[in-house]
Amino acid sequence: MSADQFAFRLLAGQRQFMLYRQIKPWDHAAGVLMVQEAGGYAARFDNSPYAPTSQDGGLLSAPDQATWQELHDIMLGSSLAEINAFPKR
Hints:
The chain has 4 helices and 3 strands; from the N terminus they run αβαββαα. By secondary structure, the chain is α+β, with helices and mostly antiparallel strands. The chain has a single domain (3-80), classed as D-Maltodextrin-Binding Protein, domain 2 (3-Layer(aba) Sandwich). The chain has a 3-stranded antiparallel sheet with strand order 1-3-2, sandwiched between helices.
């Protein structure tokens, strides 16, 4: 399933969030735009805005910013440095 299909499922309420460690513009640019235009929140793991020109830092998308922050704290809070230390494929 493509990243854009996951975005459609997030927008339809069939998924609660999307989390990606590697971000490539051909995989995520359209999905991030759809989520943001629908009122959702998508940002890199460090909470900086997603930009198609940046391919590192991971990506988390959620229905709103409060949910994004809660998910970030639970899943990535203290382990962000550890996640970034994993070798990329």
